[in-house]
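pipeline/complex-builder :: batch 7 item 3
reading input block
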Amino acid sequence: ILNVEQSPQSLHVQEGDSTNFTCSFPSSNFYALHWYRWETAKSPEALFVMTLNGDEKKKGRISATLNTKEGYSYLYIKGSQPEDSATYLCASFSGNTPLVFGKGTRLSVIA
Amino acid sequence: GEEVAQTPKHLVRGEGQKAKLYCAPIKGHSYVFWYQQVLKNEFKFLISFQNENVFDETGMPKERFSAKCLPNSPCSLEIQATKLEDSAVYFCASSLRGTAEAFFGQGTRLTVV
């Protein structure tokens, strides 16, 4: 099973700060990179699915970029709010392997 | 259905007993994934299906764990002779295709006592 790594493991930011975190994945035979937001006691919900090198996607204050050649994706949150507090998971889908998740980055936004 | 339905929500089993978990994927979705969440934030892949065929089972413990996705039936994950370390939340997810977003069920919390 391919290895998906996320950093940092956890992050504390002040309300209003912008922040970003990283997902790295093996670049060979790549099909898609997924980002999910997971709040405690709920199920993960998809934020973005990206497939093309150089893809950039945006949803409100959250955006993501993808580099398939070097095998990384960044998730950015602009002007963090307390409701952004959650665990952010990335997952990679390659040609012959299933959707494999990283361990996530736990974000806490302090008011 | 419009959402992934997992049953039961909670399951308690004595060590050595069998546990069976069910997942009804969203209608029309070809892929089904099972994950085990033991520690917070860590989704351990178990097995995936493409329709009723096993797509990848490299995450499944070789003994005691089995899974099926048969036509016109919910998918199932069965653990024979449960052990204490099997206690976890088991999530099922389905997607239209590998490059599409996965939709998760609410999970089944298995407690082995």
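note: Chain B is about 0% helix and 50% strand.
queue -> next item
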